[in-house]
Amino acid sequence: MLRYLATRLLRAALTIAMVVTFAFVVLRLSGDPAQIIMGADAPPEAVDAFRAAWGLDQPVWMQYFHYFGAILSGDLGRSMRDGRDAIVLVAERIPATLALTIPALAIKIGLGIPAGIYAALHRNSWVDRLVMVVAVAGFTVPSFVLGLILVLVFAVQLGWLPSGGQESWRHAILPVITLGLGGAAVLARFTRSAMLEVLGQPYIRTASAKGVPWRAVVTRHALPNAAIPTVTIIGFMVGSLIAGAVVVESVFSWPGVGRLLVVAVGNRDLAVVQCILLLVAATMVMANLVVDLLYGLLDPRLRAGARKAA
Amino acid sequence: MPEAPHPVAIAPPRRRVAGPPPLVVFGIVWLALMLLVAILADVLSPYAYTALDLRNRLSPPVGFGGTWLHPLGTDELGRDVLSRLIYSIRTSLLIAFGATIIGAVVGTALGFLAAHFRGLVEQAVLALVDFSASLPFLILALAVLAFFGNSTVLLVCLLGLHAWERYARIARGLALAAGMQGYAAAVRGLGASPWRIYGRHVLPNIASTLIVSMTLAFPEIILLESGLSFLGLGVQPPNTSLGSMVGYGREYLTRAPWILLAPAITIVLTTLSVSLIGDWLRDRLDPTLR
């Protein structure tokens, strides 16, 4: 188990290092940041001063070295637009995003998993068909379309809910529903197919044949095994708590991390973009790590396999 | 003399040649229609997609008080929604096709490389796969667009990178499996070059799985492109795509919802069609893939 843990940690660290390297390479490939920020007609002295201030006058490998060191010490640069620390700018927005994504995650899990399990257990019933239709719709309707349709119905036509902004909890209802429904559909579809696969396994037949009540077969044998692939998807959803609402935040003018990212991309505020990139990657890697560890708990075979392979 | 048995009686039980279910037929028809529209955009569209008709601004579609002059209505600048829709379909489909093919080619090639060379090459490819999986694609795409600015070529290449790791993983796994089967070893024994082994022998054997993956990736790419364009960071004006039409129409949500609804419905029906076809193909060609 310790080796399993160690290899996973090493891989997580390697992935983060790759993301940092990627950010650096892309940043340098994209042209002279000084020229981009200052504009083409800036006086050369000003551009040089900017370069010196941001360390752009050093050789590339030195810059990479400094860059890595700075990131390790938590210095993610300052917003090139308003001069504040990028990480502070981003951190300010995190609570607003979490206020959407955490309730949405609750909807996804609370609605998607039971629906998927029920559909699998009652295969080809009308509930199953309904779940599948809704799940496919959830797959294919983009979140901005769903969001705008909800706005059109509940804000414009019925006037029940506000269409955007962040003044009260009522403003969060439509974005949370938009996020939650799409994710619930994905999760339902996944849970259903995981359950169906498990239900077709010989050990389920064995358990029923030796007289285990169906309810116990489902709860003791089917669900734990179907949980394994489902956990992957939930891990991905947890990993995208911070930046999983880019489009929805834009639809509802919700001042979260996603909105900040879109504006920063529009302004080419590279420090902020890079900060969000690293933050998202770190969250994702952490979530994947937790999923891997959960795998180890849920599936003893993986543990043994990892030991053998390592 | 006894009568010879009726041929039907001894015929083997009729093979069930089940045609595609109605929803899949709908998907195929809709997709064919979209392709036709994309190819014949210049012939079909009643106006140029940038043409202004300032006397008929924000006119509603036929059936909602509009006239046949502009069957799907017009936008704020009096541009014909139908014409814009037709050109948007062309743009969006072109981008999605290009990106899907790039992703499939790059991913498959890397997967084969990993399977052929093993060792360090394989580790490097797998590390790249890990890297890809660690970043939600939309974030990655936004970051690259922020750094490099925007162009259609970049957009296509960027979207092409979506899902490459899926092809890479599949191609590597299947190529490794093929290596253990007789046929690849036999060709190798005959002295065929790696190009020949992978191109002529392994690839055709795993093509169906790759094609199914492509049908699964295609709608995702349409959604990504339309999402980016919706945010104003994908296809740039004066060009138009389905997503950017929705993004533009959002400003007129209350006064002229048709600007937004026409492309929105098109996106949904198109992705739905490809998904239905993809699911059906997957069940028929490759039940092991999920």
Low-confidence stretches of chain B: none
Q: State the largest interface.
A: A-B, 52 and 42 residues
Structural class of chain A: mainly alpha
Average pLDDT taken over every residue of chain A? 79
Gap from first CA to last CA of chain A:
11 Å
Strand content of chain A: under 5%
Category from helices, strands and their pairing of chain B: mainly alpha
**Overall geometry of chain A:** flat
User: Treating each run of at least 4 consecutive H or I residues as one helix, how many helices of chain B?
Assistant: 12
Number of strands of chain A: 0
How many strands appear in the DSSP assignment of chain B? Answer: 0
- Radius of gyration of chain A (Å): 24 Å
Helix content, binned percent of chain B: 55-70%
Estimate the mean pLDDT confidence of chain B: 79
Give the H and E element order of chain B: HHHHHHHHHHHH
Characterization of this structure:
With 310 residues, chain A is mainly α. In chain A, 79% of the residues lie in helices and 0% in strands. Chain A contains 14 helices and no strands. The longest helix of chain A has 36 residues, at 86-121. Chain A starts with a helix and ends with a helix. Chain B is mainly α. Helices cover 68% and strands 0% of the residues of chain B. Chain B is built from twelve helices and no strands. Chain B has helices at 7-10, 22-39, 41-44, 81-117, 119-134, 137-148, 152-160, 164-180, 182-189, 194-230, 242-249, 258-285. The longest helix of chain B has 37 residues, at 81-117. Chain B is elongated and about 75 Å long. The model of chain B has no long low-confidence stretch (mean pLDDT 79). Chains A and B meet through α1, α6, α7, α11 and α12 of A and α5, α6, α10, α11 and α12 of B.
